Amino acid sequence: MSGVFSLADDLPPDWRSGRFVGRVMQADGPSPILVENGVAYDMAQVAPTVSMLLDRLPVQAEAGEPLGSLDALDLPLLSPVDLQCVKACGVTFAVSAIERVIEERARGDAGAAADIRTRLEARMGGSIRTTVPGSPEAATLKQALIEDGMWSQYLEVAIGPDAEVFTKAPVLATVGAGAEIGIRSDSTWNNPEPEIVLIVDSRGTPVGATLGNDVNLRDFEGRSALLLGKAKDNNASCALGPLIRLFDDGFTMDDVRAADVELRIEGPEGYVLEGVSNMAQISRDPIELVRQTLSEHQYPDGFALFLGTLFAPVQDRDEPGRGFTHKVGDMVSIATPCLGRLANRVVTSKDAPPWEQGIGAFMTNLAERGLLGSRVKEHAA
């Protein structure tokens, strides 16, 4: 699943000094690339998968085949992850928590959301925004809300001790920058979720970050939390990219913690929606979310972890009080200076290119190119 486009407009301003990992589609199949000093190198002969490449850091880019300047790269760009599990954390921001409660109480009815939002915010005030999850103050707030009949399963993960961590997409099913992104054809209330995504290696160490769009169907999840799988995991419903920026002296976890993630949606009818998700307002630190994801679980090929979003689209699009929902043809751009821009055009999941290269086909392709064998044994060892 890929999109052919120029990276020139989507790279961070300091792309010549940062180190990046990604995936491109060569004539014979997908290859991981490593970018140093602004030059992209095909690393398939060194590490045939991104998962293996990240485990071998700090590998020297010069061990690969130079492809030229990154901004002139004209190969189809894929999602920058391959064998990693794709996980996501939900309700990690206070505003997001309130919106999930609204979805639940509206039972997926966008028309009922505005009135519920007004009543909830008046009742809760700013208390949830200043509450540390799992703290004694959180327990006190929880008890008060229960007594007032206002408690929700979404508030449980917003201020309780346990974060929400779910599987967003199957291995190899994510789409990259420039690709079409899908919403279910039977959804009438949905939205993008602009997020920073941590990339964690097989040892459980965060090695970098990228941008992600955790497409969400508010009507499905609002009817029942048990529909989370249908709300979150559909063909082409998870975009990552454009590249993974590796942590180094010029880009650290503190840059992730301080990032402003901007969203812009341009509709085919001239509609424009803009918003910002400020990572400084996250309720749980990114390292804590990684820790909870790793709790009593292993990821031998590493994982990508969506950190959640502050952005909640409530700006009306067609009818007053019904808020925002996607239309086919929407252009969605997610950007932050340290990671660049992730842009995708919205289609239905039925009309998006089908996901065809699963793990079996991927491994067969690598084997046919002579990229497996001893390298896999070295990686396993």
Notable features of this structure?
19 strands, five-stranded mixed β-sheet, 381 residues, ten-stranded mixed β-sheet, 11 helices, alpha+beta
Descriptive notes:
Strands 5-4-3-2-14-12-11-17-7-8 form a 10-stranded mixed beta sheet. Strands 9-19-18-15-16 form a 5-stranded mixed beta sheet, with no helix packed on it. Strands 1-6 form a two-stranded antiparallel sheet. The chain has 381 residues and is of the alpha+beta class. The two termini are 31 Å apart. The protein is 24% helix and 28% strand. The protein is globular and about 65 Å long. The mean pLDDT is 89. 48% of the residues are buried. A hairpin with a 3-residue loop joins β18 and β19.
Residue share in helix = 10-25%
Biggest β-sheet description = 10 strands, mixed
Strand fraction: 25-35%
The separation of the N and C termini measures: 31 Å
Order of helices and strands: EEEEHEEEHHHHEEEEEEHHEHEEHEEEHH
Radius of gyration: 21 Å
Secondary structure layout:
Layout: E1 2-3, E2 20-26, E3 29-36, E4 39-42, H1 50-55, E5 65-69, E6 77-78, E7 85-90, H2 94-106, H3 113-124, H4 136-147, H5 153-159, E8 164-169, E9 180-183, E10 190-191, E11 194-200, E12 206-214, E13 216-217, H6 218-223, H7 228-232, E14 238-246, H8 253-258, E15 260-266, E16 272-278, H9 286-294, E17 303-306, E18 331-336, E19 340-348, H10 359-368, H11 374-380
